[in-house]
Write a structure and sequence with these properties.
Elements lengths: L1 E8 L6 H14 L4 E7 L11 H4 L3 E2 L5 E2 L2 H9 L8 E3 H14 L9 H17 L12 E6 L9 H14 L4 E8 L12 H12 L6 E5 L6 H11 L6 E4 L8 H6 L3 H9 L9 H4 L1 H11 L3 E9 L9 H14 L1 E9 L6 H5 L1 H13 L2 E4 L8 H13 L4 E4 L1 H13 L6 E3 L8 E6 L13 E9 L7 H5 L5 E8 L1 E3 L4 H6 L2 E7 L5 E6 L5 E4 L14 H10 L3 H6 L17 H12 L9 H5 L11
Helix pairs in contact: 1-3, 4-5, 5-6, 13-20, 16-17
Length: about 625
């Protein structure tokens, strides 16, 4: 087993997750089986009880693990299925060690950070690294480990010490360290400053880990002189220092990194045996094609996300990614407007009329609407009002989890005339509880008690004309990931369906409603599960595909072609041949067949001027 440890310096959120995912994407293109581990030094057992404002969205895995959003990056980039053990926290390690101590496994010895905690970390990593994560079922050959936070954090000291020991345990030829650091460029001087990176690497080396690769994150590419300076002070060869500026999309990062001979270096450093490599545009073709297509999207679509946590866009990372996946596939650049749900409520008209009118204006000018999940009372009435507006104005709509429940409440109030209808989460004493809790998932404890993970949804035999079923390829059964405690009250189903709200998908026991659609509406779909978790760059989620198609009035023609996009290739508007396309790719990304350093070529391209953060 080979290991790549990715650490961070200067600031958190510098892009370690995308860098780690890109290492994996490059190796997978070379035929190497890859797995990933994310280490979060917090004491929480998992991310399940976090507020989205605290740590971004909570990502859910097939096995129900509630984990850090970086595992979503790993799954999207590598097209793998990870497990809850692929997310290590301080809480998990300490709980394991304490359980062993209570069981008497340490034979009366004093339990200490070294060696007991550090040994537990190493054993966990070795065990998880061997677990297959791809459809092939093969044992991974390379494990990429991302250490959260930055070097110097007191919370991560035990993990750093564990990996200092681990490099000798697995031997140097099987262990590589990549350090991701910010290289700021103050406007007052206009030059890149290397001191923060020098200090970060010095601290890392002082803790016993020497970086083999330094990834410099910056707004603009750094020059050769800056690389040489970092090389002199950080004991790393200039060719092993990679500058990654802000790019158009995170999906351009693997190609950009491989332009610096990353696969060749890792093959030599870790003895992977993947050289000699063919021309880069052959083995990296899927990523080159994706980046090229994204840079030449001719049309645009505007999507409103009406949520409760819109102050932090990371709260809806998977949803925004899923929208972009669908847009890229269809040929549309997706522009997202985040709308705070509470600003749409009537009470806001008197409290802050400017915010109220701005929110409704933004909603009205969008081509389609997504109402995502969430918890608690705040903003629920705004989501319900959004559902009513989309239903009444034939606006393409996708409700997810709480958005699904809000659509049910709105329909009950305004169509069934059950004026006090509500969810028992918000109003426990409601006269018409159309959304109720699932008793087995309301145990009194918050962590890990929801209906979690991949579960089957069965389409009813009567749903032959269902839009959502056709988008899924007319399958009888689908598998999607869940995260909820409340469900539609089955006592009201007959009444809902009598008035046009069809529950076309149910769980395997046919007791819980999973998918609803409205009759006589261009696209009014809501799902109890979270389809965004299984969306991939090359394979978008069907509900999001349907939303974008409906927003541009292309859904009917899509169905007429048997759920196939127009056979006309998007590239045909720009290029006369594949050779011309490849030549432009080489020119724009600075791709060189001999993998020479091309940061100067890249800096003059249109991509480097983008301000999108990793």
């Amino acid at each position: 087993m080979k290991y790549i440890l990715v650490t961070g310096g200067v600031i958190s959120g510098v892009g370690k997750g995308v860098i780690s995912s890109s290492f994996g994407a490059i190796l997978k293109c070379c035929g190497i089986e890859v797995t990933s581990i994310k280490i979060d030094p917090y004491i929480n057992l998992d991310a399940g009880t976090f507020s989205p404002y605290e740590h971004g969205e909570v990502y859910v895995l097939d096995d129900g693990g509630e984990v850090d959003l970086d595992l979503g990056n790993y799954e999207r980039f590598l097209n793998v299925t990870l497990h809850r053990q692929n997310n290590i926290t301080t809480g998990k390690i300490y709980q394991q060690v304490i359980d062993r101590e209570r069981h008497g496994d340490y034979l009366g010895k004093t339990v200490q950070v070294v060696p007991h905690i550090t040994d537990a970390i190493q054993e966990w990593v070795e065990k998880v690294a061997q677990k297959p994560v791809s459809e092939s079922g093969k044992t991974p050959e390379v494990c990429i480990i991302e250490l959260g936070g930055i070097i110097g954090d007191i919370e991560s000291m035990a993990f750093v010490e564990a990996f200092r020991q681990f490099q000798f345990r697995v031997k140097r030829e099987n262990f590589c360290v990549a350090h991701v650091s910010l290289v700021p460029q103050p406007r007052t001087t206009g030059e890149h400053k290397t001191k923060p990176t020098q200090s970060s690497v010095r601290e890392l080396r002082g803790l016993g880990l020497s970086p083999d690769i330094i990834v410099c994150r910056s707004e603009k590419p750094i020059g050769l002189s800056v690389k040489e300076k970092i090389s002199n002070f950080c004991h790393v060869a200039p060719q092993q220092i990679i500058s990654i500026p802000d790019l158009n999309s995170v999906y351009e990062v693997p190609v950009f990194m491989e332009n610096h001979s990353m696969a060749e270096y890792l093959s030599d450093r870790l003895h992977l045996g993947i050289t000699p490599l063919p021309p880069m545009r052959k083995y990296m073709k899927p990523w080159i094609d994706l980046g090229e297509k994204m840079r030449h999207l001719k049309y645009e679509v505007t999507v409103a996300i009406v949520g409760k946590y819109t102050r932090l866009e990371d709260s809806y990372t998977s949803i925004t990614k899923a929208l972009h996946h669908a847009g890229n596939k269809i040929g549309y650049k997706v522009n997202i407007k985040f709308i705070e749900a509470s600003n749409l409520e009537a009470t806001m008209l008197s409290e802050n009329p400017a915010s109220y009118h701005d929110a409704w204006h933004n909603l009205c000018v969008c081509d389609c609407v997504v109402v995502p999940g969430g918890f608690g009372k705040r903003g629920v009435e705004g989501k319900i009002g959004t559902c009513q507006w989309c239903r009444a104005n034939n606006k393409p709509f996708l409700g997810i989890c709480l958005g699904f429940q809000a659509a049910v409440v709105e329909f009950a109030r305004n169509v069934l005339k059950l004026e006090d209808a509500h969810s028992t989460e918000v109003c426990p004493d409601t006269k018409y509880p159309v959304v109720i809790d699932m008793p087995e998932h309301n145990t009194g404890e918050m962590g890990g008690t929801m209906r979690l993970g991949k579960r089957a949804t069965i389409f009813k035999p009567s749903a032959t004309n269902s839009k959502i079923r056709r988008l899924y390829g007319n399958k009888d059964k689908i598998d999607e990931r869940h995260r909820h405690r409340y469900e539609v009250n089955p006592d009201y189903i007959e009444q809902f369906e009598k008035y046009g709200m069809q529950f076309v998908g149910v769980d395997v026991d046919q007791e819980r409603m999973e998918v609803l659609e409205l009759d006589n509406h261009p696209y009014y779909v809501a799902v109890q599960y979270h389809p965004e978790y299984l969306s991939r760059p090359m394979n978008p989620s069907p509900p999001f595909m349907g939303l974008i198609l409906a927003a541009k009035d292309r859904l009917k023609s899509y169905f007429a072609r048997g759920c196939k996009l127009s056979p006309r290739e998007p590239q045909s508007d720009y290029y006369d041949s594949e050779d011309e396309l490849n030549e432009l790719t080489v020119r724009q990304l600075g791709i060189c067949s001999d993998h020479e350093d091309s940061s100067s070529a890249y800096s003059s391209s249109s991509i480097s001027s983008s301000k999108i953060e990793l």
